[in-house]
Structures are given as C-alpha cells and as structure tokens.
Amino acid sequence: MTDRALAVVRAGALTTVQDRGRPGHAHLGVPRSGALDAPAAVLVNRLVGNPPEAAVLETTLNGCALRPRSAVTVAVGGAPCPVTVGGRPAAWGAPVRVPAGALLDVGAAVSGVRSYVAVSGGIAVEPVLGSRSTDLLSGLGPPPLTDGAVLPLGHPVGPHARVDVAPQPAPPAELVLHVTLGPRDDWFTPAAVRTFTSRTYRVSAASNRIGLRTEGPALERALPGELPSEGVVLGAVQVPPDGRPVVFLADHPTTGGYPVIAVVGASDLPAAAQAVPGTPVRFVAVRRR
C-alpha cells in the first residue's frame, strides 16, 4: 500500500476532486466540469509546486478534514476559512507542511462558498476522458468524497512557493455579471429584456455546480411554446418556465430546450462560484450579438 495517499476523516457537505475539466466532449453530451473557481484552484496548485492542471479538492461551505499517510505540503484558498494542522492554527492562502498522520482540518467558509485544497503531487485518481474532475450531472469521474475514503497522491514535481500569504479576491458582496444578449432574447418581451438588464436579482439557495439559480422578477415571454433542444455553453443564462434566470456553471447540461436570453462572460464566472445565497446579482449587457 502506497504512503502517497490522503485518508478522508470528514468529507463535509460536498467535497469533490476537480481540475481544469474535460472540454471538447459536448458532442457526446459530456459537460466541461472542472473547478468552479478556476483561478483559486490554479493559485493553490502554484503555492504547493504543482502544475496548474493538477487535481485539487473543492469543498462546499463547511470544508473537510484529511489525514496524509506521508508528509505533504498543502495550500487552502478560494473561500476564506480556518485551517488547523494537528489541532493548531495554520495559514490560509499559503503553503503549509502537514506531517504524516497529522489531521488537516479545513473549516467552514467565513465568506464565500467553495474552498480549494491543493496537496503536493496532486490528487492522483484515475482520469476519465482526460480529466480527474467529478461531474455531478453525468456521474463521470470520482464520486464526491465520503468519510473513510482514501485518495492516491502523485509525486511532487517542484518546490512550494516562498510566500507568507497569496492575495486572493474576496467573495462578492454584489455579483455583477456582464452578458452578451442572445441567442434567444427575441423570445422575451422588450420589457422583460429591460428588466433582466436593469433589476437586481439574488442568488438562490437552490444553486449548485450545475447552475446558479436566481430569485427576482420573472421574465415574460414574447413567444409561446418550447424550443427544440439546442446546444448550450458555459455561462449561458437559461430562463425556465418560472421566468427566473439560471446561469449555467461547469456541470451544466450540453443541450436544453428553455430559451437562453444571454451568455455571461467567462471572466465573471469565478465570482459566481463564491456568491452565497442572498447575494445581489446584476446582469449588465456589454454588447449585442
């Protein structure tokens, strides 16, 4: 049995293995998946000396606890949270040495939603279609962590960063999403389009890795009926029958039949990953297709 492994002591509400995802398989019905807050995942990998594509752990709200079988370097980033090693406080946002058998506890997020845990060598579960990411929609990749699970680790390829703490953006107090209208904004009344780009929504507690759901004014259709299913992309803003916009995130379906009123720019999506329920959301149109 290899000593390059992590034992999961506390899996938390939802902890998954994530990397850069598996783009290029939408024609097979396979979502991209991957870390929702990709810059945070890249940063913690850099802090422990991993390449940016190494697999990390993505926790949701209440963190996780892990026990390495050999000494490792870890870094925790994304949503700010308390970190302890062997019961003693440790740094968040910086490389931390964890001795063999010591308990690494990643606590509940103080703000934001998702924290990221990188381990020197990366999480070395078996890749599927070129990625180690857990995909909650299709079920590809490793299952979400459970108490008692054991995760294999790769071998370190570089030294950890020499920093006291790495600056990271704070979770948003207000989520501003810049959108390109279309391709189906003509399925909504002009008043609905104005409402979409001028009124404030709020993040719904029903949000997940598939989509950020919103609460707020319903958008009125100009056209009745339903579309035939058509391809949808990361960041697409789909409007289901209740009229409340849903922003598709990494585990989104690759096709859908509800009209897409707009698409969110990729650079705004990491902030969406950290927006807690109740966060105000504004959709700002930047140009028209």
Write the layout of secondary structure elements.
Elements: E1 5-10, E2 16-18, H1 38-48, E3 56-60, E4 64-68, E5 72-78, E6 83-85, E7 88-90, E8 96-98, E9 104-106, E10 114-119, E11 150-152, E12 175-181, H2 190-198, E13 200-203, E14 211-215, E15 230-231, E16 236-238, E17 246-248, E18 255-256, E19 260-264, H3 269-273, E20 280-288
Parallel strand pairs: 12-20
Antiparallel strand pairs: 1-4, 1-11, 2-3, 3-10, 4-9, 5-8, 5-10, 6-7, 6-9, 12-19, 13-14, 13-20, 14-17, 15-18, 16-17, 16-19
What can you see in these coordinates?
The structure is a single chain. The protein is mainly β and 289 residues long. It has helices spanning 38-48, 190-198, 269-273; strands spanning 5-10, 16-18, 56-60, 64-68, 72-78, 83-85, 88-90, 96-98, 104-106, 114-119, 150-152, 175-181, 200-203, 211-215, 230-231, 236-238, 246-248, 255-256, 260-264, 280-288. The protein has a seven-stranded mixed beta barrel. It has a six-stranded antiparallel β-sheet with strand order 7-6-9-4-1-11, with no helix packed on it. Strands 2-3-10-5-8 form a five-stranded antiparallel β-sheet.
